[in-house]
Amino acid sequence: MKRSILITGGAGFIGSHVVRLFVTKYPDYHIINLDKLTYAGNLANLKDIEDAPNYTFVRADICDFDTVCSLFEQYAIDGVIHLAAESHVDRSIKDPFTFARTNVLGTLSLLQAAKHHWNGNWQGKRFYHISTDEVYGALQFDGSLFHETTKYDPHSPYSASKASSDHFVRAFHDTYGMPALVTNCSNNYGPYQFPEKLIPLFINNIRHGKPLPVYGKGENVRDWLYVVDHARAIDTIFHNGKDGETYNIGGFNEWKNIDIVKVLIKTVDRLLGNAPGTSDHLITYVTDRPGHDLRYAIDSTKLKTELGWEPSLQFEEGIEKTVRWYLDHHEWMDNITSGEYEKYYDDMYKNR
Ligand code: NAD
Ligand code: TYD
């Protein structure tokens, strides 16, 4: 095998797309997917590649330093693509400790294990940390964008924990010379996203005629990127990015929440054969999220000019594909909402 790459969080939403891309595109790489299988991890996301000869799944916690060290030894890891994290803002508001543990201490545990194992021999090594645009804080409705140089200003416990992990990665580059880089991406959408996030939650609720809880007035703006385009960017940056650098990844695709909700209603109703307007009454304005960031918008010009990456899908096309996917794969969704997928792991790991 030419390379041995540890991908963390590969059973989650974005991680599963990254694992699939690397396993299929690089048959001469060994891909080791390290995932704790929290509520957000789901091996059904990787059913199509689980038997690939260049793929190994390991169930472990990134905070378990001894296990992480032994994986570096056992598989002679030379590259890390680190996605494992607690990722939902609303959960971070209820339980910030779990976010600090996984996102900050878990990242530190991986960095320390890589440092021990690589032991100053940085040739051919790379630690790639996946972060979010939320670390930059909130923009006003003034056309401004997040640049790589924008000052960090996180507001939620989630973004504060991601900001802290980003600083640790940069500190390991600056202090020890570890070949490391960070990318900050905007909101992703697409297949296999856990239905606590806006787009899959609302598609599922429309399908079942359940209320659509829009926070505040629905005026907050997010910049949406199709998840496969994020995975393509990660591939480009892992191979061609420069150590010590930061790259912003975004879709130049800003939408107000309420406008996205209207597109989702229209698309789901059309694909289900409902008359236009059938599900409009499901929109329900609810109390706003505390500290709700007003607007995110990424400038990804650096990535385009230096590494030639651009999004491949227009939003209209991506949303149509996404809604179709969730309707066609409703068993995937039903397994999650019934909790069936977690029982599957309990059975699978009971005797190990
Ligand atoms: P996700 O919640 O869908 O998946 C996270 C995965 O990490 C799950 O498989 C979970 O089991 C695993 N995990 C959690 N804690 C772990 C631990 N202690 N040890 C090992 N594995 C653990 O998240 P996602 O949306 O796919 O996000 C992946 C990464 O991308 C995160 O780092 C997130 O901050 C970042 N990101 C997400 C978005 C987005 O829109 N979803 C945007 C930008 C950046
Ligand atoms: P989310 O998918 O949780 O991503 P993030 O908070 O990381 O941007 O939410 C996207 C936007 O949708 C955000 O502005 C919050 C809003 N939202 C709702 O209005 N209702 C909901 O039920 C959810 C989950 C999100």
Strand share of the residues? Answer: 15-25%
Average pLDDT reading: 96
What general form does the structure show? globular
How can the largest sheet be summarized? 7 strands, parallel
Give start-end ranges of low-pLDDT stretches: 348-352
Taken in chain order, the helices and strands follow as: EHEEHEHHEHEEHEEHEEHEHHHH
Straight-line N-to-C gap:
28 Å
Helical fraction: 40-55%
Radius of gyration: 20 Å
Ions, cofactors and other ligands present here are: nicotinamide-adenine-dinucleotide, thymidine-5'-diphosphate
What is the number of E strands? 12
Structural class: alpha/beta
Count helical runs: 12
With strands numbered from the N-terminus, the spatial order across the biggest sheet is 3-2-1-4-5-6-10
Describe this structure in words.
With 352 residues, this protein is of the alpha/beta class. The protein is built from twelve helices and twelve strands. It has helices spanning 13-25, 65-75, 89-94, 96-118, 157-176, 198-207, 227-240, 257-271, 301-307, 315-328, 330-337, 340-350; strands spanning 3-8, 29-35, 55-59, 79-82, 126-132, 180-185, 187-189, 212-215, 221-226, 246-249, 254-256, 283-286. The strands form three sheets. Strands 3-2-1-4-5-6-10 form a seven-stranded parallel sheet, sandwiched between helices. A three-stranded mixed sheet has the order 7-9-11. The chain has a two-stranded parallel sheet with strand order 8-12. Strand 5 (126-132), helix 5 (157-176) and strand 6 (180-185) form a beta-alpha-beta unit. The chain is globular and about 60 Å long. The structure holds nicotinamide-adenine-dinucleotide (NAD) and thymidine-5'-diphosphate (TYD). Residues 89, 187, 197-198, 201, 213-215, 220, 222, 257, 289 line the site of thymidine-5'-diphosphate.
